[in-house]
TrEMBL record:
<dbReference type="GO" id="GO:0018812">
    <property type="term" value="F:3-hydroxyacyl-CoA dehydratase activity"/>
</dbReference>
<keyword id="KW-0275">Fatty acid biosynthesis</keyword>
<dbReference type="GO" id="GO:0030148">
    <property type="term" value="P:sphingolipid biosynthetic process"/>
</dbReference>
<feature type="transmembrane region" description="Helical">
    <location>
        <begin position="54"/>
        <end position="72"/>
    </location>
</feature>
<dbReference type="Pfam" id="PF04387">
    <property type="entry name" value="PTPLA"/>
</dbReference>
<dbReference type="GO" id="GO:0030497">
    <property type="term" value="P:fatty acid elongation"/>
</dbReference>
<keyword id="KW-0443">Lipid metabolism</keyword>
<keyword id="KW-0444">Lipid biosynthesis</keyword>
<keyword id="KW-0276">Fatty acid metabolism</keyword>
<dbReference type="GO" id="GO:0102158">
    <property type="term" value="F:very-long-chain (3R)-3-hydroxyacyl-CoA dehydratase activity"/>
</dbReference>
<feature type="transmembrane region" description="Helical">
    <location>
        <begin position="187"/>
        <end position="207"/>
    </location>
</feature>
<keyword id="KW-0812">Transmembrane</keyword>
<comment type="similarity">
    <text>Belongs to the very long-chain fatty acids dehydratase HACD family.</text>
</comment>
<keyword id="KW-0472">Membrane</keyword>
<dbReference type="GO" id="GO:0042761">
    <property type="term" value="P:very long-chain fatty acid biosynthetic process"/>
</dbReference>
<dbReference type="InterPro" id="IPR007482">
    <property type="entry name" value="Tyr_Pase-like_PTPLA"/>
</dbReference>
<dbReference type="GO" id="GO:0005789">
    <property type="term" value="C:endoplasmic reticulum membrane"/>
</dbReference>
């Protein structure tokens, strides 16, 4: 049975609509990525090609925190929040405002990792809700993360790393003394602080997915005769 907690038909209909829209959105991004490589043979210019769609569909994933919080699905609230905010933070707090990151190698890494993951994940949820779960989808959902998670994290950290000198030089989102509020804030140090945060929390998400994999792909135990 699906992870939708109570079989409330309005919740079920909403989740089907959400998953179908997200599958379509990420497929649109995927087509943009493949089309860009096919046409230009380089990742330069790739971000600008998919920026609007990426901002929209990645931000929409915030709804998943509410799905988990209000019991529409059985996802872990803390892990879902970490997962969603790491990406929303990278997209809105690093990649979008720091144009110098757009043509760096972190971009194709995150786009490939996120796009493949999300097309499969949302398609998988849709199938589960419709009561049909092709074995191949189950296997892909709980196997591809083994390589896509490290690829995505590497791309996210590379993007963070490349943004640092530009954030420091431009004073992006920072407030320096003296000022009327007598308060200072340095965004550069917030971004620096994200590296240890990733080191602490990424293993939790990664090993959680291995536990989910074991639960979902292990054959059911044979009944004792
Ligand atoms: C400002 C604060 C900033 C904090 C920053 C902190 C940074 C920390 C470091 C984080 C590193 C993240 C790196 C990452 O961004 C890189 C990548 O993602 S690369 C790509 C690879 N990624 C993945 O494969 C992960 C994909 N994500 C997930 O799978 C989930 O988000 C995750 C939270 C990891 C898993 O959560 P959980 O196991 O709890 O949930 P499930 O999805 O398995 O679902 C549980 C049950 O609920 C059902 N469900 C869930 N959602 C839906 C839905 N939309 N529709 C229908 N049903 C749904 C699901 O089927 C399960 O059902 P059941 O229990 O019956 O199996």
């Amino acid at each position: 049975m699906s992870g939708v907690k109570k079989q409330n038909s309005a919740a079920q209909a909403w989740l089907i609509m959400y998953n179908v829209a997200m599958t379509a959105g990420w497929s649109f991004i995927g087509i943009g990525v493949v089309g860009h490589f096919y046409k230009h043979g380089t990742y330069k210019g790739l971000y600008d090609q998919v920026e609007k769609q990426l901002l929209f569909f990645q931000t929409s994933a915030i709804l998943e925190i509410f799905h988990a919080m209000f019991g529409l699905v059985r996802s872990n609230v803390m892990l879902t929040t970490l997962q969603v905010f790491s990406r929303v933070g990278i997209v809105w707090g690093v990649i979008q405002p720091v144009v110098q990151v757009h043509d760096k190698e972190g971009i194709p890494m995150v786009l490939i990792a996120w796009t493949i993951t999300e097309i499969i994940r949302y398609l998988f949820y849709t199938f589960v809700l419709l009561g049909v779960t092709p074995k191949v989808m189950l296997w892909l959902r709980y196997t591809l993360f083994i390589v896509l998670y490290p690829l995505g994290v590497t791309g996210e950290l590379l993007s963070l790393y490349y943004s640092l000198p530009h954030v420091q030089n431009s004073g992006l989102y920072s407030l320096y003394l003296p000022n009327n509020l007598n308060f200072s804030f340095n965004y550069y140090y917030v971004l620096l602080g994200m590296f240890p945060v990733y080191v602490i929390f990424f293993p939790q998400l990664y090993f959680h997915m291995f536990a989910q994999r074991k639960k979902s792909l292990s054959p059911p135990a044979k009944k004792q005769e």
